[in-house]
Amino acid sequence: MYVCSCFGITEQQVREHAGTGACTPRQIASACKAGTDCGGCVRRIQQLLGRGACPRRELIDSGSTEPLGAAAEPPPVAEVAAVAPAALQEAA
Question: By CB neighbour count within 10 A (0-12 exposed, 13-18 middle, 19+ buried), where does 10 fall?
């Protein structure tokens, strides 16, 4: 069944994009343009995405701050804050 009649996008296509990592209507729009013309399909896209349809969303819901595929932990904020002013001065 068509979800986006403006661009001829089907429910199956939305599910396929969600399966490859598009977790929000905006990411679906970037992948196939669905929802970018009249916007009438955005709510249906939201329904199709549902909760837990995306691995990244599952990580967020579990409280994880680590991005998918990340092996190393990011540096503490204090370290970044200490380096940033020096880097800005060098760039100037």
Answer: middle
Distance (Å, rounded) from C-alpha 19 to C-alpha 71? 22
CA 80, distance to chain mean position in Å, is 25
Using one digit for the tens of pLDDT, what is the confidence trace for 52-85?
A: 545 555 555 666 655 554 444 555 555 545 555 5
| SS (HEC) of 38-58 | CCCCHHHHHHHHCCCCCHHHH
Q: Is 19 exposed, middle or buried (0-12, 13-18, 19+ CB in 10 A)?
A: exposed
